Every structure is written in C-alpha cells, then in structure tokens.
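Page 42, continued from yesterday. The earlier attempt failed because a stray header line got pasted into the input along with the sequence. Redoing it now with the clean sequence only.
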Amino acid sequence: MPTVYLTSPPDAAAEIAETVLEERLAACVNRLPSESIYRWEGKIQRKEEAILLAKTTDDAYDDLVSRVQELHPHEVPCIERFDEDHVLESFATWRAENVD
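This time it went through. Structure tokens are written below.
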C-alpha cells in the first residue's frame, strides 16, 4: 500500500487533506510545515509549503492523484508515491477499512 508525498501552499493544504479524507481516497493525511527551495522557470525559488503524507491503497491511488491535481493550485504539483515493503499489519488493516 502506498503513502503519497505531496507539497502544497499552506493555504491550500487543509482543503486538499480534508477533501481526500471526506471522499475516502485516504485514511489519514499528515501535514508538516516546510520551506521548499527549487528551480522554476530558470530561477531559484524559496517558498513556505506544507508537506502532506496521504495514506491510501493501491486501488484508490489513481483517484487520489486525479483529485489532488484538480484541487492543487500549482501547474506542476509535487505528487510522489512511496510503496511500503513492511507495514504494521494492524495499521494496514485500518487503512484498508477507511479507504473506498
């Protein structure tokens, strides 16, 4: 089962997290403040962002990505998938029960 790593402007992060939870595309979303430094259009940018870690399932992954793309204000949102080799069985069961 995957964990999806997302970054978002802080003012959009709550809506993204709450929407994917309400629509049962994720069982849990952790939100962390961060500063991102990146290259965009040939210039170094420095922005405050929120990191979102969305716990989802293989079946819901594509729908979660599509929904985040609809909600995200950036032209090129950061959406990365991390597949877990090992996860506590009780957590995996809970996650599966809370994602449609």
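Notes: The CA atoms of residues 13 and 50 lie 6 Å apart.
Reminder to self: strip header lines before submitting.
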